[in-house]
Predict the 3D structure of the following.
Amino acid sequence: MASDDIWILGIHMTKFGKHPDLDVVDLAAEAAMGALDDGGVGIKDMGVLAAGCLMMAQAGIGQQLQKQIGQTGIPVYNVANACATGATALRTAIMAVRAGECDMGLAVGVEKLAGAGLLAGGARKSDDDTWTRHGRYGAVAPVDGRIGTETMPGVFAQIGMEYGHRYGGTSFELFARISEKNHSHSTLNPLASYSKAMSLEQIMGDMMIAYPNTRPMCSANCDGAAAAVIVSDAKLKTLDPDQRRRAVKISASVLTSDPWEESCQVLPDVNTLTRNAATQAYEQAGVGPEDLDLVELHDCFATAELVHYDNLMLCPVGGAVDFFESGATWRDGTTPVNVSGGLESKGHPIAATGIANVWEVAHHLRGEAGDRQIEGASVGLAHVIGLGSACGVHILEKAAS
Amino acid sequence: MSDQITLVDYLELGDDPHLVANQCRACGARFFDRRNACASCGKTEFDRVRVAGEGEVRAFTIVSFAAPGVPVPFVAALVDCDGTSVRGNLINVEPDPEHVSLGMKVRLATYSVGTDSSGTEAIGFGFEPQEAQSNGI
């Protein structure tokens, strides 16, 4: 008897880094064809395509991709949801399959960002010749740098600092040590943009971007793509034993937005919607944080990783500093976090990120993660945040063999 | 004295410069910008209310890398003004971790943003330490 379960049949990520000779569609095609091949299926088996490329959100990346890998006439959903775009594409395909519209779907996220600088607050218009009020704040001149900061390193720095103010125990060094962990983890990931270990001294002594985030504590802009083929339980049961054995169960797929909180108009609240998504995901999956063998969470900045330990309930409320200090989140700890190297070293090709983190978890659950395999991994969680805000959480489980 | 205009319309000048917010008549949620309806409860009536001018730094960052034309370093902060969260720069303080701290008590202060071609001066706001600093700043 088939269930409502949805499975990952095939999944692929490209090398993250600099791909000067490949365009966005090349990268998307490599990921999509890789995922189809990994699942042992073809483009004609797909009933839906969901695709995202945030920097080209109006370009119809899904249809552009079809021109290169197969124009089969299926519905295409081009999605954009800030840094949660990849997770949104995946969830869109999942919803279509769960709704019974088709039995297999393809989700793709791609971005070319190598060499990009600040993605927000990177340009400020010059002042007008005469002061005239504009916009909903009636501003007579640009306010970035005059009323706080619009840069992401600065916004997420404040998010980490606010946690420190509320619960204590944070310091420049503590945040740098989180980055040290992720850079250390990256040495085992051949697909990471940067796979060099960095000492605490190197991290703290590097170029300051927005205190306490130095450059290696920020996500790395890079090129990359990731794609996943998903399948219904009923369809999976008709496939070969090898395909079934490597299938990874999507035990929870959740997307939330940020509910109103008092201070969210002046500093985005990335906490409440993550906690809400995690709560729903644990309930859907019937697992708890203590069951997780690994977590890939959205460390867009070292200051962000800390708050998400708490938001994902990996530790007691207010206990993120102690949790990190215990060594729990290193790859040999009780809850390994970002064994891929995280966004700080693996890189953050925005729309690819929310599928690449699922690829990482799935890779371990299949026992195919090579040198960085978390032994015996059977349950994992992937989390992304897109500022604005959107949060995607997926919980994955190994196939019962 | 030349004409003055505030950098944003939620700053009011006069003898006692202060910020004002649009407060939802139904639930009390406060907004510095114009809202079509309340983001907290969906109701549509707002009152313009004064925001406390003294507060506590709940979060800050020292921005060293910003868009061309934005002078760095500067301190961006989230200030809790008696329950209303306000975004603003910390001013009249050295922008380094030795002089800025979480929980620091601050008060609203204004400064000149610049004068336009018609001679009108734009006035911005920030927050300065309530206590004079030991180095005399």
Q: What stands out?
A: The mean pLDDT of chain A is 96. The CA atoms of residues 164 and 171 of chain A lie 8 Å apart. Chain A has two domains: 6-116+222-249, 152-218+251-398. Chain A touches chain B through 51 residues (CB under 8 Å).
